[in-house]
Amino acid sequence: MINVDKIREDFPILKRTVHGKPLVYFDNAATSQTPQAVIDTIVDYYSNYNSNIHRGVHTLSQEATDKYEEARIKVQKHFNAKEAYEIILTAGTTHSINIVAAGFTSLIKKGDEVIVSALEHHSNIVPWQMMCEKTGAILKVIPMFEDGSLDMDTYHALVNEKTKLVFCNHVSNALGTLNPIEEIIKKAHEFNAAVMVDGAQATPHIKPDVQALDADFYVASAHKLCGPTGVGLLYGKEEWLQKLPPYQGGGEMIATVSFKKTTYAGLPHKFEAGTPNICGGIAFGAGLDYMNAVGFDNIAKYEHELLTYGTAELLKIEGLKIYGTTTKKTAVISFNVGEIHPYDIGAILDKLGIAVRTGHHCAQPIMDFYQIPGTVRASFSFYNTKEEIDILVSGVKRAVRMLS
Ligand code: PMP
């Protein structure tokens, strides 16, 4: 059970006002808010043991190294990776995807096929297009249906012995719809193709078990998990991480360097060139601790209540259309009202203290599918309330009156 009043006390930002109104924060799919425990972790790092890791003999460096490696183990446990060295700490989902896409550039040849879904964020499209341009690989797309689900029959027909890699999000950021990644992975593996799952949107709502899923790669960002920006993870099965070449060269990622020949460090350091976001990594672990203390079963149950309530209340508004109507969804409502531009609704909501996202949500192909310029997206978290949804609904009604 969630005690939302108590939880809200943990988030200082939820006490602030915007344009003189209490903040109603419904832009959680873009970035979640930060609990005091994570803020304290960041302050503690810079106040007490700020230093560079992995190479210092002095106490501060050892303390920072220990905390950073403890954070890696927290991430490993959270995602149930077999080994801690299968967790690469990166700058976030986009960085993680680029590491994999750049690595596959040397593993893929002309005529090989890679498959993407129609529901992707630009960061899970563009790096692969760049990879295809360099290699001559062919990009195939799993189409989507009107309700925001994937056309799985077509997917099954697309996979064949030429397929080398499938990349798909676990949950769509634009619609909140949940994709059948278990089925996607199983089918790809019948043809020995690797699967990379973009978990940026799923991880705030679902605790993924990468071994049970049998995902070859799984990526996510800390800033959607009550952690800071600029840090995330790349999980990769050991065999794949061994096969992929390093993404960046530099300090920390080497075993030996000479002008004749350089050899690379083992996992995970091979992919962690340079000084990482040390404080961010440690705070990532603190964000996961916080969410696990709330409990992902509790989070899923409570957010589902918010989704059901918000969907029913918003649909009472005449002319309001929700995109992504499949029942397999996380707590995201993407909508438009009649012909009103989503930006105009978002700007009025902001004046009422309500933060939503408007636009194409970095998923232009989805907007093209629906032939719309964008949507208004309200995304809920476990610290939101039904009262806040009521404020949103009356705000949308007011915006519609003003704009009609
Ligand atoms: N994929 C999805 C599904 C996302 O929602 C996002 C963030 N909106 C990203 C990738 C990119 O994440 P980041 O900006 O943290 O790198």
TrEMBL record:
Cofactors that this protein relies on: pyridoxal 5'-phosphate
Aminotransferase class V domain: residues covered: 24-392
UniProt keyword annotations, A-Z: Lyase, Pyridoxal phosphate, Transferase
Transferase found in the keyword field: yes
Enzymatic class: transferase
MF terms in GO: cysteine desulfurase activity; lyase activity; pyridoxal phosphate binding
One record GO biological process: cysteine metabolic process
Superkingdom assignment: Bacteria
Catalysed reaction, written as an equation: (sulfur carrier)-H + L-cysteine = (sulfur carrier)-SH + L-alanine
A Pfam short name: Aminotran_5
InterPro entries with a match to the protein in the record: Aminotrans_V_dom, Cys_dSase_SufS, PyrdxlP-dep_Trfase, PyrdxlP-dep_Trfase_major, PyrdxlP-dep_Trfase_small
EC number(s) from the headed UniProt entry: 2.8.1.7
Family: Belongs to the class-V pyridoxal-phosphate-dependent aminotransferase family. Csd subfamily.
Protein name: cysteine desulfurase
